[in-house]
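Example complex used in Figure S2.
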Amino acid sequence: MRLPPALLAALLAIPVLVPHAVSADPVAPPAPAVRDFGNGPERNEVAADAPERAEALKAAQTEQPGTLSHDRGYPRRTRLPVPPANPADASIKLGLVPHHDIAPRLNDLQQLGDRVSAQVIGRSYGGRDLYLVTVTTPESAAEVREQERIRERIENDPAAAARDRKLVKKYKAPLFVNANIHGNEWEGTDAALRVIEELATSKDPGIADLLARTRLYFNITANPDGRVNGVRQNGAGFDLNRDFVTASQPEGRAMRQIMIDAQPVAMIDLHGYVNGTLIEPTTPPHGANYEYDLFIQNTYANGLGMESAVNGLGYTPEKDGVYPAQIPFRDSAEGWDDWPPIFTPQYAPFHGAVAAHTVEIPLRVNGSDYTQLPVEELRRRSAINTDVAAAAIRATYAFVRDRHDRLITDQIEVFRRGSAGEPSRAVPLGIVPGFGPEDVYDTTFPRAYVITGRRSEAAAARLVDHLIANDVRVERARHAFRADGRTYPAGSYVVDMRQPKRGLANVMLEAGADISPRVDAMYDISGWSHGLLWGAGVDGVSSLRVQADPVKAAAPTGSVPRTPGALALKVADAKDVLALNDLLAQGTAVTWADGAAIVPASARPAARAVADRYGVAFTTASTTGTAASTTAGVPLAPVRIAAAVSADELFTLRELGFAVTPVSTAVLNAGYDWSGTDVLFVSSGLSYTALNPAARAALDAFLATGGVITRGGTGAAFNAAAGLLTATAVAGRGDANGVVRVLSTGGQVGAGSPDHSFVYSPRWFTGLGPEVTVEQSYAAEGPLVSGHWRPNADGTGGQDAARGQAAVVSGRDERGAAVVLFGTEPMFRNHPKGLFPQVARALYWASSVTGAAVRR
Ligand SMILES: [Zn+2]
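Predicted assembly (856 residues):
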């Protein structure tokens, strides 16, 4: 299910704590869909210990090929490789299919007739196969190509597709069923396998008709690592149902590719556990970049159909502990919104889904129930859950069959409005029963976005490649041009908003909105922005007169100046960090001076190699303004980090090329050898006061030479308890989150940062000692640009209280340790790419000035 982070953290940290929306007891009264946050632990307060997978980290940098071949007929009868049996697979206890039995089942199902085709579409972070099943009537290769031509026409020439009356009759409507994205919400997988078998063998003419007019795509388990391990996250510790704007994980990129290639008109995402079954559409606020008039009509209609099918199974509260289904849009005021496009059904509409749902099946079998309930009871619950999920799938395919022409027509209309550049439409009140003023959200599309490398060419290239991977069209200007009074150089990238997927382009590139005034509480994050947080220069412009060519990838960005002498590499982008860490790993004699690495003339070949490899731009050392000679700066060595951090931070630090050893209170108490550590990073799972005397003495000895970086409440508490910097951390409201305006002032960490940062449970620092430098502060205006940040009930903790306050500070404590305190969230879910260099600069500075690196 879609647990709010605070509640999730509480759940994971204290297994007996059950949020009220989760039914721990099958005869408990139905739970409301609304969630409140309260002042629980901040997000991600769970220490990470994800194993390092160099291969997966490398895969994070590369894109996947298309998942669907358009040159082969159906069925395809691919023999899937069968993984070794794993008796520890968590599915087995529930009587459900373990991951290692899925491939044999699919191999058998493909032999049952001529309707089922299965394929491997990628691998999980943990290296497990991801399976896509296509169910449809047989098609020749020519028929497959014809279907693809129609799909392509719907997307790329929607006005003509809308005029072609024969098109909808010829086209098989694509439906996408996504199962088990949360690993410990199992039964969607088993329901999918059951329904595939029914479809494969059915003699019902209604099924033959369905399969002649539709293609059904099943992602059998979106999260095999989590399924096997019995946890929500994938093997890297990521919640895949929060990753769609970032696509940091291979499972998410596989799902994205299905949606791009198949272009489903409808989709359902199968979760658990909410009793009675929760079926979207959602409460407000609604995402402003959808064609919501089309979306809500279809989504509500299928919601009602699924409700009827689920209730029609005949399970009762008295007999089975199963309550009637609930639809948040109809049954709740707020708390289950579709604002951020980080969830599957909130991402799919940008690729043409005009009906998309999260479905939460009813009976809890995970968490403490998994470990404490008798096996018979767990299996009773899982059997009911499988029935419910199967009913939801059947209702949805019946819906797609019955509404075939309209769903295709509405998908064409979504792309047509985008291609025509029509303004965002305000949805008429009452378009479906209960659609009121509180449901109306719209946006203003600029004529285009211009993406430049004015801050970092590497950052611009990353953003362009990300947009293209999301099937957003990007062009490159042939000549310099002017827009809105500004001149842009030749080679600038242009995102023309007259394009079929303009909603997706806009939801990533726009600043977003501060929705604090409109809703009391949000389900998850309320702010994100690739435009403001990814380090590229991004401008929305109101006119577009430019000669530009479509691009399939960003142009190469690496360069080394010809002028002889030492070189400088400004750490302004994550790619600069990778390049620098690569040089350090090679043993290159690099020095660190005020946010830049200085590379001696003798290492020019190595510099040229990493410039090519990572696309980074070196300058001549004398022009950096920070280091006039080759001898300036402090010698730098590879930074070795001990990290008590959340899973996303661990992933990000490793992705940046740092050597990271996860630590925690327990690890330190067991006796930790600090001799291989340069910097301690604390944001989660480490309490100074909970250390035993020996562990504290060892840590104190480390602090005489090492560096410390902290983030969030855990980090601030560590700073205070360990007596590091003189600073009082003030906590903003716990659920506040979003994009904030900042002012960078400091030399070591802040300088060169974007004008925006990201916060979740923001903090600021007051009562600063003379040893403390303000690196970055919250702007005097706002500071929230987009997201949700209200004051606490007593008036404290609001964004006004944060205005002008220190957000990031640095200093040397009296023992000599170099310390940086973050009140912001620079690595949140691997999203704000433009903030990663701040963290790296903090690490290089802390490691270089404290001497540990020099001594080696
Ligand atoms: Zn879920």
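The CA atoms of residues 310 and 468 lie 39 Å apart. Residues 1-2, 182, 185, 271 surround zinc ion (CB under 6 Å).
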